[in-house]
Predict the structure.
Amino acid sequence: MLILLILTIPFSFALERLLVGATNIYKQMAWILIFFIGTFLMLYFTHPAFAMSQSPMIIFIAFFIIVMSVMVIYIVMSRFKSELLAMQGMDTSAHRVNSENSMLLAAIMIGVSSMRNRPVKTLLTILTVVLLTFTIISFASFDSTTYVRPVYMGSGSGEQRIESFLPQHVDLLEPLCRSMKELYKDDYHVFFRSASYNSPFYMLPTYPNQANVIYNPAFHGMKDGEPLPQTIELDAVVGFEPEETICSEKLGKLMVKLREKTAAELQKKAEAEKNGTKYVAPAADPVPGVYLSKVRAESLNLKVGDIFFLRTMPVRLDGIFEAKDLDDFTYLDNGKVTPPNFNQTATAEASSIFAVLNSSYVDASNFIWSSPDLTMLTDYETAKKVNGFVNAVLFYPKSSEIDIRKDATDIAEVTFGIVYSNTASNGVERHFMAPVFEASGLSNLLVPLLLGALIILSSLLGSIADREREIFTFSALGLSPKDVSCLFFAESSVYAVIGGLGGYLLSQVTNAVLTALAKRGVLEAPQMNFSSMTTVYTILIVMAIVLLSTIYPAIKAGRAASPDVARKWKMPPPDGDILCFQFPFTVSRVDFGGILVFISEHFANHADSSLGSFAASNIRITHGKNELTDGYMLTADFTLAPFDLGVAEEMSMYSAPSDIEGIDVVTVRIIRRDGSKGAWLRGNTRFVGEIRNQFLLWRSLPVETVMHYRELAAKNLNNAANAEGEQA
């Protein structure tokens, strides 16, 4: 809805220019306001958003806030730029290069105004775009749906598998996990992983303390005369289903004894099935086995086989692992198997824990993970006994013929987390639900769309032929080929805005009339899709078609504006360390002194080498006869940006007679004094461009300002002559 309201601003402006064309600024604003209010009222009474909203005026207030905010930001930034220029010593408004934007705006206004001179063609073209918009809205619909999209994450390593977990690596819904295990048990070995740690979801008073404390009552060691601690608080306890130690090579190396025990039991089960005997599973071990890092085992003086306590539960140390091996054991998203430490992560990011968790996109690489030295490994059931929860589900295929990629996509459709797959052919892929844009009915509208584009194309091409003399006049008045091209884009933008929003308003009014007639039993109203997203997509499509149809006519018009000359002036190549060329300007011999004073003033504003693209020094204006000229000459020394390259040069600017009496051409002679030749040429490209801009600005100065600079030139030369006489 806000997008439609924003479009009403250029829509109202275009209507005022085409239908009224007021010359007074107050009348222009009044008519724009009238058209805006009329358009808003049509939207208010026809758009469904106003009918569905309990406070419809809030929509208008939000729009008003956006518009006013943009205006205030623009005014503040303009003022800030002016103040910054004043602080830099460039407060002479005559030297500010605003001509390009002004010319572009002038081209747009000329293009809109010239449409009024051809009312029939303009009306027919606008009606074409309006009907095109109405047709698309009535017979096509646009919608956004979601589907699972795989994204390549890199080459995989380790076993082919599927991993499902939440981006934050917190607890999953266990009923959903068990349903997936039951669904895929025929094709995959499905294993749960559990973790017990200080999860932020378990910090409420209703949940028990997640701190995991291990205690060795038999240890009373001393070090440096001080007793060593008998208890250590762990960051996390991570549990794995025993069968996963067979499928995962890295996990099997970490939990060797559990892998050997599980392999032996699976062998017994296979032999029992082969012999047709009943397999009896062993009873649960009353003292479960656990695994600690080498550092933690030594700190508690524990050896393999020792009994100690995890909280109040007796456990047995079945193995010791290296912390580096556990640190290298990761998920496919490069997240650690050790759970995240959310307290340290939130502190490092200077935010709250819940801000980290509720981020729209959680990047596992930003987490600080639990220390491997403070992590205990055990089986899945033991971790559950100390309030562990399921935080990952892994799928290992039972055969090489299973389509892992397809199954990962299916799993991603029913889970709340992210699914990763690792296959030999596709590497590691991330499967997640993503929105996709769908359009229906557009195939039936290809011909109307093509016809609309051709009508606009032919209309604009006809305008070029009809307005050839007008284009030449614009070019003579100072419009560049780019500005002439923008003139045609301005016209097409008016067609696009009026046609897009006008077609939507027509469809809304038509729908309201048909609905009213249907209520009276006159006819049956057709089903039309006028949703907000459909409207936005339709207007964007129409605007794109109109603007694309303008590209070729705009290029052709730009070429017509400069048929026999280059579209952009280029600096000639140097002769050794000397660069000498004539500017494409002719100036009056009477004005040349004033021009040089004007340009020297611009150079003086760049005396500070920290500002602009050059720094100037030793600026001098002389008048007399020498080997270069018989008239005014401006000389100065320059250092070009970037200043650390040390590019230095000397420039002389003087006039030379042309073929017309009293008219001179401007000649520039630049001598390289220091710096590499390549940096010198690159720096002069921008430097010479700035000088050309000053010549263009001179032509736009009012007569009083020109006379002011003429007087300054005469005064400066008189002062210089008097100083020379006194020295003599």
About this structure: Confidence is low (pLDDT under 50) at residues 89-93, 203-209. Residues 481-519 form the longest helix (39 residues). The chain is about 50% helix and 20% strand.
